[in-house]
Design brief:
65% helix; 5-stranded mixed sheet; alpha+beta; 8 helices; 271 residues
Length: 271
C-alpha cells in the first residue's frame, strides 16, 4: 500500500514537471523572440506555409472533356510528386464545365498548371497561403510531452514489481497516453502534409468559346420541353383569368344598363 501511494505521488510529480518544462519552453520560443524575430522575418514557424492555388481556364466545348480527363490521368500518374485527386466533376449542362481539386508537391502543381495553360486560355489565377507555424510548434510540443510522459510511465511499470494495484494503474495510464500519442502524431502528419504539398483547384469552362450554332442546337434540343412548359403556363394563366372573365361578362351588362339610366334625361326636366 505504501508503494502504491509513493507511485501515485511520483506520477503526479512527473506530470507537473513535464507541464512546467513545456510551459517554460513555450515562453522561450514565443515570448522571448517573437517581437524582434517577427520584425526581421526570422520567426520560427514562418516557413510553415500551406499554399492553395486556383486556376481558371476557358477552352472550346469539344475540348473540355478531353482536358478534364487528361488532368485527372496526369495527376494519377504523377506518383513522384505525390499527386492526390481530392475531387472532380464534369457538367454538360447549358455550358460545359469541369472542376478538379488535387494536392501535390509544388513541382507537381506547376506541371498540372502548365498542362492546363497549354490547352486553353487562362482566365483567372490566384494563390493564398496560411501560416501553420504556431499549430506545428504546438503539435510538436504536445508530442514531446506525451513521449516523455510515456517513458516515465514505462519506467514506473518496471519498478512496480508484484504490486498489482500499482501495475493496473500504470498500465491503464499507459494505454491512455498511447491513444493520445497516436492522435497527436496523426494531427502533426496532417499539418506537415498541408505544408509539404500544395492544394490546386482547377475550373475548366467553355462559356467564352462556344460555337455560333451551339445555342441554336441547344434550343432545338429543348424545344419539346419548352413547348410543354409554355403550354402548361398558358393553361395555368387561363385558369386564373377565366373566373374574372365570367364575372366581367355578368356584371358588364348590369353596369352598362345602370350607366344608361344615369345618363338618360329625367321626366319634367327641361334641357
Amino acid at each position: 500500500m505504501q508503494f502504491s501511494n509513493k507511485l501515485v505521488k511520483t506520477m503526479a510529480v512527473a506530470a507537473l514537471l513535464a507541464l512546467a518544462a513545456c510551459s517554460s519552453k513555450g515562453e522561450l520560443d514565443g515570448g522571448g523572440q517573437s517581437s524582434a524575430a517577427r520584425l526581421q522575418g526570422k520567426e520560427k514557424g514562418a516557413e510553415f506555409l500551406a499554399y492553395e492555388h486556383s486556376v481558371g481556364v476557358d477552352t472550346g466545348e469539344a475540348r473540355v472533356r478531353p482536358l478534364y480527363e487528361k488532368v485527372v490521368a496526369a495527376c494519377k500518374a504523377d506518383t513522384a510528386n505525390g499527386c492526390m485527386l481530392l475531387d472532380s466533376s464534369l457538367d454538360s449542362g447549358r455550358y460545359m464545365h469541369a472542376r478538379i481539386s488535387l494536392r501535390a508537391k509544388p513541382a507537381g502543381v506547376q506541371k498540372i498548371v502548365a498542362l492546363v495553360a497549354a490547352e486553353g486560355e487562362l482566365t483567372s489565377q490566384g494563390t493564398k497561403a496560411e501560416d501553420l507555424g504556431r499549430p506545428v510548434m504546438d503539435s510538436r510540443k504536445r508530442l514531446e510531452m506525451l513521449r516523455q510522459y510515456q517513458a516515465q510511465l514505462q519506467a514506473l511499470e518496471k519498478k512496480s514489481g508484484n504490486n498489482v494495484d500499482a501495475l493496473i494503474k500504470v498500465t491503464k495510464e499507459l494505454a491512455t497516453v498511447q491513444t493520445e500519442l497516436e492522435e497527436a502524431t496523426a494531427a502533426n502528419s496532417l499539418l506537415m502534409q498541408r505544408i509539404d504539398t500544395d492544394l490546386l483547384k482547377i475550373s475548366i469552362s467553355a462559356q467564352g468559346k462556344h460555337s455560333f450554332w451551339s445555342p441554336v442546337k441547344r434550343s432545338l434540343g429543348n424545344f419539346t420541353e419548352n413547348l410543354s412548359e409554355g403550354t402548361a403556363n398558358a393553361i395555368t394563366a387561363l385558369a386564373y383569368i377565366l373566373p374574372w372573365l365570367v364575372g366581367f361578362g355578368i356584371l358588364f351588362p348590369l353596369l352598362r344598363k345602370g350607366w344608361r339610366r344615369l345618363r338618360a334625361p329625367r321626366k319634367g326636366v327641361q334641357k
